[in-house]
Structure formats: C-alpha cells, structure tokens
Specification:
The complex is a heterodimer.
Chain A (H helix, E strand, L loop, with lengths): L1 E5 L4 H12 L3 E6 L9 E4 L5 H8 L4 E4 L10 H21 L4 E5 L11 E4 L11 H16 L6 E7 L2 E2 L6 H10 L5 E2 L5 E2 L2 E2 H18 L3 E4 L5 E2 H11 L8 E2 L1 H17 L10 H8 L2 E3 L2 H7 L7 H18 L1
Parallel strand pairs in A: 1-2, 1-4, 2-3, 4-5, 5-7, 6-15, 7-12, 8-11, 9-14
Antiparallel strand pairs in A: 10-13
Helix pairs in contact in A: 1-6, 2-3, 3-4, 7-11, 8-9
Chain B lengths: L30 E7 L5 E8 L1 H7 L5 E6 L10 H12 L5 E6 L16 H15 L5 E5 L2 H12 L4 E6 L14 H7 L4 H7 L2 H7 L8 H8 L9 H8 L10 H10 L7 E5 L8 H10 L4 E4 L7 H4 L2 H12 L42 H5 L6 E5 L9 E4 H17 L7 E5 L4 H13 L2 E4 L5 H12 L3 E4 L1 H9 L5 E4 L5 H7 L1 E4 H8 L13 E6 L9 E5 H15 L6 E4 L2 H4 L2 H4 L2 E4 L12 H11 L3 E4 L1 H9 L6 H8 L3 E4 L6 H10 L4 E8 L2 E8 H9 L9 E6 L4 E7 L5 E6 L6 E6 L6 E2 L3 H7 L10 E9 L5 E6 L4 E3 L2 E3 L2 H8 L4 E9 L6 E8 L7 E2 L2 H11 L5 E5 L14 H11 L9
Helix pairs in contact in B: 2-13, 3-4, 4-10, 6-9, 15-16, 15-20, 24-26, 25-27, 30-31
The chains are: A alpha/beta, B alpha/beta.
Chain lengths: 327, 911
C-alpha cells in the first residue's frame, strides 16, 4: 500500500512511519518540517492548508493521521484550528481523492471527564466533558473522523495512552528535566494506577490498526502496555533510568489541581519560554487512576505489546547512558 | 361480635381506572380493566396487570399462570418486577409464565364498591374474577400480606386448577395465646382505625417506611398513586377492620377454614420471607411451615415486610417455578414409621452417597449409652466443672442414666420429637448429657457458637425458631434480654426470683426428677433431623446447617475410621464439634481446663493434665488452642512430658495450620502423628493430612502447579471433585477428578449436611449441577486435585481474581510472597471490573510498617519476582484485616474494596 503519515516529525509519528515501512508499505510523510524517517518521502506543509493537504493525499491507499497540536498550554483557537480544522480538511481531501482508509490517532483523554478510569474499555469521545483544550479538540476531531466512516472511507480511531520511550521530548524529557532541577513533586500519595504505552508498542499497534482497518472500521481502541503501575513507581522508574533523583516531595492532589488552574491562567496571559510547571489537566492525569480493558483492542487489532514496561525502562536507561557517554 | 366503624367517606363509590403513566417499573401495556359479574349479583370492575398480550405478541404459549394477590395497603404495583422478569424470560426463550396481578376490589385502581368486603367475600370475589377470565390450569397462587390469605383461600377452593402456592410474608393463623402484632393493635384502637387508615395516610406511610434499604421517593409515589384521597382509602380501613383479632370476629371462621384447608394441599409450595417484619414475624412462618411441611423456604436475612422491594423475590420465584412447577407433584415426604404425626417433616433425603461396606452399619448416636449402661468405666471427665471444684468423673452408668432421665423429663415438660432445642450451655458434662438426651428423644438441637457474637447469635437463634432453650445463666440472660423465642430451661437450679426474671420454667434437676421413672418414647429414625449447626458467619450471616441422625452418626464413623477413636479410646476434647461426639464413639473423653469461649487460653499444662487424667491417646484441639499450647510449653514438668509422650495422634481442626506450628506441637507429643483435616460446618471431615504429608507435598513437583495449601487426601467415605472455573471465575465445569484443574471444590460423603435451614436458594446454589440423585455440596472454596489425588485449597470463590490473561486464585501468590524474608503475611486481591482485573498484593512486613503506603521499590520488586503473575501494585499495611472469629482468615473482599480506593487516588486509610 501507499500510505500517508501526517505529523511524522513528532516522536510517535516518526516511529509509526518507520513501523509502516517495516511492514512493507510505501510511506509518504506530511508535516511542516522534514521527518527524517529513513526510506520515506517527505511532503512539507501545514495540515490546515487545504491545497497542501489535497496534494499530499493524492494517490495514497491509506492515511495515518497524527498531525495535531499536543502541548499542554496554548490558545484555544490554535488547538481548534489544528486539531479540529486540520482533521476536517484532511477528511475532505481524502473523500475528494477517494482514499479508502484512514487511521485516526487519538487519545484516551477524549473520553476522560477527570475521574478515575479503572479497567474500562474505550468510551465514546465526549468534547463536552473532556478536560483541557487538547482533549476537547481531539474529542471533536475523533467524532468527525468516525462520523466520516463509510464503506468508501473506512476509518478507525486508536488512542495510545501516555506514550513514552527514548527520544521522547514531551513526557519523559519534561519529567527528567524537572526531576533533575528538583522541581518534580509527587501528587497525592502516588498510588494512583496508571497504564502507559512504550513507543514501539504504540507504533506497532497503529501499524496493526492500518492492516485491520477494513475489518474493524468505525471503532475506537485504547492502546496501552496493559501494565498499570502506581504513578510514583512509574516516575521513580523513569528517573532511575535517567539517573536523576526521584520525586521526593509531595503536593496534595487537590492543591496541585487548584495551583494548576491558577498557573495555567497566568501562563496564558504572560507566557514564558517554558511550559507551566503544572496544569490542571496534568494534575488530574497524575493523581487519578487510568487503566483500561485491553482485551477487545488486542483481539480486534491482532496485536499484543512486544516490549514490557520493565524492558522499556531498561531501554530508556540504555538511551540515557549512551547519551551521557557521547556528551 | 366485634365490629369497627369506618368514616363515611370509606364507602364512597368510584369506577375502576388505569394507573397514571410514568410510575417507575410499571409498563402501561400490562394494565387491563375487567368487568366481573360477582356471585352476589353486582358487577364490579377490576384493574389488573396481565402479560398475556405481551406473551401472545412474542408468539409464545404460557406454560401456566401465576395469580398474584397484594395485601394491605399496597396494590398490584408490588408485583411489577415479577411481570417484567417473567416477560423478559419468555422473550429469552425460557418457559413463559403468564402473570396476573390483581388489584383487589376497593384497592389499587379497581372499583370502589362502597360495600364491606370481609375475607369470605374477598375469596369469592377472586374466584368470580378467575371465572370471568376463564382461567385454565395450571395456576399457582402468589400472595403477600393479607393477599396471602386471600390467595390461599382461592387455592383451597380451586384444586382443579391449582399447581402450586407461593407466599411472601403473610399469616394464616393467629395463635390465641399471643396478641396480634402491636402495629395492628394500634391501627385497630378506638379512634385510630378511621383516622389512621382512611382519613390520613398514616397506615400507608408506616408500611412504606419498612423498606431495607428505604424505598426511593419515586417508588413510594408509585405505591401511593391509588390512595391519594380519603375517599380512595376506604379499602385500607376495611382491610384493617377485617383482621380477625380473635375467634369472635366475623371473618374468623373463614380464616380458620383456609388455615385448616391448606393442610391438605399437596402441590409444591414456596415461602420467601423477610424476617425483619414487625407484623409477620418468624412465628407466622413457623405456623405456615407446620401446615405446608413440604414447602421450600428461603429466609432473606436483612429483608423485611416489603421483601418485594428488599430482594430479588421475582428472580427467586422464577427460579423456583423452573425447578418445581409442572413437574408431577412431589409425593409428600414419607412419614417415618411413628405413631404421632411429625410436626416438622424435612424434605426427602437424597440417595446416600456410596459407603464402604464396613461403614454401612448405622449405629445411633446413643448406641454406647445403651450398651454400657451398666459399666462403671469412665465416660467423661470434666477437668474444671466449676469454680475451684476438682475434676468431675462421670461413669458410663451415670451418664447413661442421666441421659435417659433428662430425655424422659424433657418429654414430660412437653419437648417432642422434631421440636427445636437451642443449647446455650458451655462444653461440660452437663452439655453432653443434655445434648444426648435431646438426640435420644429426637428433639432437634440448635447449636450456634458464641464466637458469632451476640448479634450473630441472636440472628441465628431467631432464625432457627427454637421451641425450647436450655441454657446456663449467661445464655438465658441473653435470651431474655433479646427476646429469643421458646420455653426456657436452666442448667442450674435458680432462686425463684431469678427463675421469674429469666422466664425459666424448669431446671435440669427438675427434669431429672420428672423423668426418673418414666418410659422413653420411641427413638428417632436415621432420616429424622438431629441438629442445626450454625456456620461461622465469616462470609455473611451465619447459616443453619441441618443434619439428620444418620448423617451425624456418619460423622462419628468418619472420625473413627480416620483417627481410630472408638470404644475405650482416651480422648482430649478441646475442639467442640468433634469433642461432643466422644460418647457416640464409645470414647472416654476429657474436657481440659480452659475458657471454652477463648480457645487461646488453653495451656500446655492443662492439656498434659487432661491427657494424664484419662490416659488419652488422641487429642483434638483448635488452631488457636494449639498455638497457645506451643507458646506455654516451658511450663511443662517431666510428668507432663511423660503424659504427652503417650499420645498417639492429635489433630487441629477449624482452620489451616502452618507446618511450623504443627511441627512444634508434634515435638511436644513425640509419639503422635499430627493431623490437620479440611472441612466446614457443612461437611466436618472431608480430607486429612499429616505433618509428614504436608512436608512431602511441599517437596513434590505438584506444588508448582496452580499453588495453594495442600489439605491432603479425602477421608475413606468422602469423594472430592472439582468444578472448573471459566474465564469469568464462575464454576461451570462438570464435576471432575482431573489433576491440575482449578475450580470450586465439591464434596460428597455420608456425613455431608442434609440441607440448609430455610435457605432454599442457598441450598439450590450449593447443589447446583451436581450428579443427580446424589448428595453433593459445593463448598465455595476453590482449589485443585493433584496427580497424587491430594486436594489443594486456593482460596474462596468470591476472592478469585479475573484478569485479562485468565483467572488467578489468591493463595498461591500469597504463599510465595509470604515466604519472602521481610514479609509476615500477604493478601492477593483484584481491582477493577471482572474480566480485566489487576492483581494487587497487600503485605504486612517484618517489622510492621508504621503506616499504609506503597511498598519500597526493593520490596515491590521482590514481590513481583515471586508472585507468579503480573502485579500492578504492592501496598504495605501495618495490619491485615482478619475475620473476628478465626482471627486468621483475611477478609479479601473488604481488602479489595480498600485497595481499589487507594489505587484510584483515595486517602491512605487503614484497610
């Protein structure tokens, strides 16, 4: 198949493009900056530009759509334009070009209303109750994408949860950086169970969804390692891998949420060059349980995670060791 | 002649109507209005619920009709769940039951007739309705409250249609010796009747306040819907006025006709009962059981008068219908060949499980009391019979005579075969004599352990409804204070004032004199019920377990076969259920000096003294007692050691014993083989293992199977099978002996219980899908058999963890984790929804942690290494919660709830 991967310059997008190539497909990457994926063709442009998008989708058999604004803060209009507007533009272009398949890469936060998720399967995306601009706009975009599902354009949504691994500049890099600066608190008692997804597993699951889209289109699937851990243990494991001190001080979860709201609001008015140290969204993510029933995902996508949490952590440690050796 | 006046508004007329829409749970399509030409000449309109049209729309033919009759002050609304569930079941392809739930005239949405409708009229009315409906058989009646009486009246009058009777809390007979229930007395009081029932909603409100838990506002509104104005409440007052408070009442003859008429009913009967009913207490249930002795009965502990709102009565009723109705009416239980009618006939005993020929000889429990009646050999020694007294020695001659005298005396004071006698006597020579007297007489002994606590004990005694209570003073005081039923007999002779205060009619000494020269009546038969033993209640309310004489005799045969306890064996009886069987085995038994309510007070020297007193070769102890014996061994002198060296076998029963504890105890009794059996109140001796057996099992490769505690091989007459678990943790497998398969442990033996007392649904669950015609018991324990035929216990059924990768039983991981150096005890529990649960290990460390929290990384890593399954989290607690009674069984259900809270961000509370 000829496959278009949008947002391939990101941490996950790059891994997905590589996994799809490994599966024997021809990959075209579409994003603003060069993807650097070996063996892929780059088409540069913005997902909000209908002309560039139309050009990118021409002649492909499938699309994997990852391009999105993913940061924790930013102007709501920007999230709306990229995540909702960009998806609508892509769907229009795909229909016009008669592309038969689309894998929409989403997030479990689209169905998360702020309370704990303990072992449930993917619930419908809910923009009205999703927390924060990212989750809200991704929820709207997922609804758009699944509404477009039809025999002619077969759409499946996959929601990898907290993807991490060597080279991650979002989650891991932030945790390590803050821990190194002694600025990483533990929220609450740190016992909330959280499931995560090692990067290779997330990429493999998305590649599997691409292979299975004809059979499972119209559905949404949460993707995780299926190995929930208390958040304190996860943070400690990541910090140990990076040889930085584990979080040693605690902030009550309720206080962190309140503080997150205030800081978020101030940041929006007077943005610094760093992201805010805490957002309400992040505080909720790190003090409530999130883990999922993976049975349907695994049986429908014919996929199981190949890299365990412990193996992922040792690969992360290896990454930091070689990074510090070469520095 | 008693007559009551109701306000004029009570005779207001109104046509029938349909209920307003939107009442919760009520489908408007069920409502019908039927005009009935009454046999008294008038025509009245009835409102009723009927699913006939919905069944027709489904294209199914009903297999029968259930005719439901409400009481006062309710209406057909109370049957809504039954109509719904019956229709759903029919839609799902199960047998279709037509449900007709009427609103009696002047009630609900039926016509307000303006005429008084006493009981006889109401029974006629219902017959007129069924004639108009052209109802054909088979019909089962189902009544609640006074609807129970009306429905039974219809049942008595329509034998050609009747296929069964079903009842919820109701009453058919008022014992003349007892006043009618206080709430009804109040409602009938001068000046209250009209105001309380018609002019105000007081009677209605009081009834609707009886839910457990309370009814929602919406459901209460549903019940109130037809009774919004005084003019619509005349029927409520009429019903109350029609309560036959005594034999002078107009409706008394009709009530009496029905009450006597049902004695002749041979159709299947079901009684579902909520014991927390201020109106229809357990006494009325007893009366109904006496009239319909073949009835299946289930008491829902915790439910009350509004049982329809408290529990899933509809599901229970449909389950029963599937099991009982439309099969040929079961022949009435064959009466035992006795002269008098048996007041409490128990259901047919099933075919006895296979016995080896050697055991097949039934020997009544009083066999040796007869055989050795002229022997001066020692039968019993009580090491501490009372304050400061020395050992009390009782010969067979004396014991035999006392048992006969007490039995005859009991008979003299009205205790009959089949009567229930609650024994509130601590283990002692007196208890033994009273127990065997009851057994010989055929009275059913009710035994509940003081370990249940006062609340649990009260619930147990009330549920068992003893006709007589024989007790020591503390037991009698509790019985008095808590209003336990039954004639009271004291062990000691009490001063007149105390007798009056405690309501005691006789003392044991009175019985002995009364019985001295009296003949004993015929002895009971092996199939007669001998005892109701209560379970520990560590998993919900204690259940009464019913044993027949044959089954109890089989328990003593099993003890004889397993431990060689027999004629002349010296037995230290430190474990109650087995200890009481000493005389049945012909053994010399000795009760050591101990506080029996606190087994852990038994010392090593007390055991040694008991052994020496009787040259005991067999010692029975509880695990708690065993632990203290080991702890106090330093006090033993050379003579004590010498006595203990003569012991040939000892056993610790009641809960699993660790290998180190058993080994320490074995070291004190170097000549003895150490045993620990596996069993439960429902089957007291199912398997047995020795200390050597435990060690061999631990060495064996099979220990690396699904894990668990090895409890050894089945005793001679016991069969153990496994019903394999499916991925949801349900035991669905055929009974099997296949090695290595984990499932529910199912047992069969001549000494397995007969049934549960008034717990029909529990009985059904405990005997679900077993070999037809054989008596099996589902233990609720989960485990597996190994290739050597040994049983391994892996936990309790409700504690099975269902992960996405399959089911996990808790005991295996717990044993592995508890073996870690810095772990004292551990519990494996599941969090999350069934089927995708995660495993959480909760540990008690050495030394104990100061507070609750996540395990340190090193400990968490060690735990994950040995647990054998993926572990999501490891939590540390200062102390694991255990059940009060055994102080050893970890309450995993509670722990799982607690862990779920912690792991979703809840406060770090103690479990």
């Amino acid at each position: 198949m000829k496959v278009l991967v949008t947002g391939a310059s990101g941490f996950l997008g790059r891994a997905v493009a590589a996994a799809v190539i490994d599966a024997g497909h021809e990959v075209r990457c579409f994003q603003r900056r060069p993807s650097g994926v070996p063996g892929a063709t780059d088409v540069l442009g913005s997902i909000t530009d209908p002309v560039a998008v139309a050009e990118a989708v021409t002649g492909v058999d499938a699309i994997v759509h990852l391009a999105a604004k993913v940061s924790l803060t930013g102007r709501p209009a920007e999230f709306e334009a990229v995540n909702v507007g960009g998806t609508r533009t892509l769907l229009d272009a795909a229909r016009a070009a008669e592309v038969p398949r689309l894998v929409f890469v989403s997030s479990p936060s689209v169905a998360h209303a702020g309370t704990s998720i303990t072992g449930s399967d993917a619930l419908p995306a809910d923009p009205a109750h999703a927390r924060g601009d990212y989750a809200r706009t991704k929820a709207s975009a997922e609804l758009l994408a699944l509404a477009a599902d039809s025999p002619e354009l077969r759409v499946v949504a996959v929601r990898p949860h907290l993807v991490w691994g060597p080279g991650d500049t979002q989650l891991i890099a932030r945790i390590v950086e803050r821990a190194r600066a002694g600025r990483l608190p533990l929220l609450g008692h740190g016992a909330a169970l959280i499931d995560t997804t090692y990067i290779d597993n997330a990429a493999a699951a998305i590649a599997a969804a691409l292979e299975r889209v004809d059979a499972v289109h119209g559905n949404a699937y949460v993707i995780t390692n299926g190995e929930p851990r208390p958040v304190a243990e996860l943070l400690a494991g990541i910090c140990a891998a990076a040889c930085v001190p584990a979080p040693a001080w605690r902030v009550p979860a309720s206080l962190a949420r309140a503080a997150g709201s205030v800081i978020e609001a101030v940041w929006r008015v007077a943005p610094g060059d760093d992201e805010p140290p805490m957002t309400r969204f992040l505080a909720e993510q790190l003090s409530t349980a999130h883990w999922f029933d993976q049975r349907r995902t695994r049986s429908d996508l014919h996929w199981t995670p190949a890299v365990s949490l412990d193996e992922g952590l040792s690969r992360l440690a290896e990454h930091y060791r070689s990074a510090s050796a070469s520095a | 002649m008693v007559s009551y006046r109701l306000p004029r508004t009570a005779t207001a007329l109104a046509p029938a109507s349909v209920p307003p829409s939107g009442l919760p749970g009520l489908d408007p399509d069920w409502s019908r209005i039927v005009d009935v030409a009454q046999s008294d000449g008038g025509t009245h309109a009835w409102h009723l619920l009927d699913n006939a049209e919905q069944l027709a729309a489904l294209g199914v033919e009903p297999v029968g009709t259930v005719l439901c009759v409400h009481g006062n002050p309710t209406w057909s609304y109370l049957w809504r769940d039954l109509v719904a569930q019956a229709t759903e079941a029919a839609a799902a392809g199960q047998p279709a039951w037509r449900i007709i739930a009427v609103d009696q005239l002047d009630m609900g949405f039926s016509e307000r007739t303006g005429a008084a409708r006493p009981l006889a009229r109401r029974v006629q009315d219902l017959g007129d309705l069924t004639n108009t409906l052209g109802l054909t058989g088979p019909v089962l009646t189902f009544g609640h409250d006074w609807g129970g009486v009306v429905s039974l009246g219809w049942a008595v009058d329509h034998p050609e249609l009747l296929a069964g009777v079903m009842l919820l809390n109701t009453a058919i007979h008022q014992n003349e010796a007892e006043p009618i229930p206080a709430p009804l007395r109040l409602a009938l009081a001068r000046g209250v009747l009209g105001t309380g029932t018609v002019l105000s909603t007081a009677f209605l409100d009081t009834t609707l306040a009886l839910g457990h838990p309370g009814l929602t506002g919406a459901v209460k509104s549903g019940y109130r819907a037809p009774y919004r104005t005084a003019a619509r409440r005349g029927g409520i007052g009429g019903f109350v006025a029609d309560i036959p408070v005594d034999a002078d009442h107009d409706s008394y003859p009709e009530l009496d006709r029905i009450a006597e008429g049902i004695r002749a009913l041979e159709v299947p009967a079901l009684m579902l009962w909520g014991p927390q009913d201020p109106i229809f207490s357990d006494g009325y249930l007893d009366d109904l059981i006496a009239r319909l002795p073949h009835a299946d009965v289930h008491r829902f502990e915790g439910a009350g008068h509004l049982i329809i709102e408290d529990v899933d009565y509809a599901g229970a009723a449909l389950t029963w219908l599937a099991a009982n109705a439309l099969v040929e009416p079961a022949p009435l239980v064959e009466p035992a060949p006795v002269v008098e009618p048996d007041p409490l006939v128990e259901p047919d005993p099933l075919v006895e499980p296979v016995e080896t020929p050697a055991d097949a000889q039934y020997q009544p429990l009083w066999h040796y009391l007869d055989e050795l009646q002229n022997s001066d050999e020692t039968a019993l020694i009580d090491m501490a019979p009372g304050a400061g007294a020395g050992p009390r020695v009782v010969s067979w001659r004396l014991l035999s005579r006392r048992v006969r005298e007490i039995a005859a005396g009991l008979h003299q004071v009205g205790v009959r075969r089949g009567d229930r006698v609650s024994l509130l006597v601590p283990p002692s020579a007196d208890l033994t004599a009273v127990l065997y007297a009851c057994i010989r007489l055929g009275a059913i002994v009710v035994v509940a352990d003081a370990g249940l606590g006062l609340t649990g004990l009260t619930r147990a005694v009330r549920g068992a409804r003893p006709d007589h209570v024989i007790g020591a003073v503390p037991g009698l005081m509790a019985a008095r204070a808590l209003g336990w039923p039954g004639q009271k007999i004291s062990i000691a002779r009490l001063p007149a004032a105390s007798r009056r205060a405690l309501g005691v009619s006789y003392a044991l000494a009175d019985l002995i004199s009364l019985g001295r020269d009296e003949e004993l009546p015929e002895p009971p038969q092996p199939t007669d019920v001998a005892a109701v033993l209560f379970t520990s209640g560590s998993t919900g309310p204690a259940k009464g377990v019913v044993y027949t004489h044959g089954q109890l005799a089989a328990v003593s045969r099993a003890l004889h076969a397993q431990y060689g306890v027999g004629r002349g064996t010296g037995l230290v009886a430190g474990f109650a259920p087995f200890a009481l069987l000493g005389p049945a085995l012909g053994a010399r038994s000795v009760t050591p000096d101990m506080d029996v309510t606190a087994p852990k007070t038994l010392t090593a020297t007390a055991v040694a003294a008991a052994v020496a007193a009787i040259d005991a070769t067999v010692v029975f102890l509880s695990p708690a007692a065993l632990a203290n014996v080991v702890a106090t061994q330093d006090e033993l002198g050379p003579a004590d050691h010498a006595a203990l060296a003569g012991v040939r076998s000892f056993l610790s029963a009641g809960a699993p014993v660790s290998e180190p504890l058993l080994a320490s105890a074995a070291a004190l009794m170097p000549g003895a083989s150490a045993h620990t059996p596996y069993g439960m109140t429902e089957g007291l001796l199912m398997t047995d293992i020795t200390l050597e057996g435990i060690r061999a099992a631990a060495q064996d490769d099979v220990a690396r199977g699904p894990g668990g505690v090895c409890v050894g091989t089945p005793t001679a007459t016991t069969r153990v099978r496994i019903s394999a678990l499916d991925e949801t943790g349900a035991a669905v497998g055929e009974l099997s002996e296949t090695a290595g398969v984990t499932g529910e442990i199912v047992v069969s033996a001549p000494h397995v219980k007969n049934h549960y007392d008034k717990l029909w649904l529990t009985d059904l669950a405990a005997t679900r899908a077993v070999t037809a015609g054989e008596r099996w018991h589902r233990t609720g324990d989960v485990g597996h058999l190994d290739a050597a035929g040994r049983l391994w216990v892996e936990g309790r059924m409700p504690h099975v963890i269902t992960t996405a990768l399959g089911v996990v039983t808790p005991v295996g991981p717990e044993i592995a984790v508890s073996a870690l150096h810095d772990v004292a005890r551990s519990a494996a529990v599941g969090v999350g929804p069934a089927g995708s649960q995660q495993i959480v290990i909760v540990v008690e460390t050495v030394p104990p942690a100061a507070r609750v929290g996540l395990a340190e990384p090193e400990l968490a890593e060690d735990v994950r290494m040995v647990a054998g399954h993926p572990v999501a989290a490891v939590l540390v607690v200062p102390r694991l919660p255990t059940d009060i009674r055994h102080n050893s069984k970890i309450d995993r259900t509670r722990l799982a709830r607690w862990a779920h809270g912690i792991l979703t961000g809840a406060r770090l509370s103690q479990p």
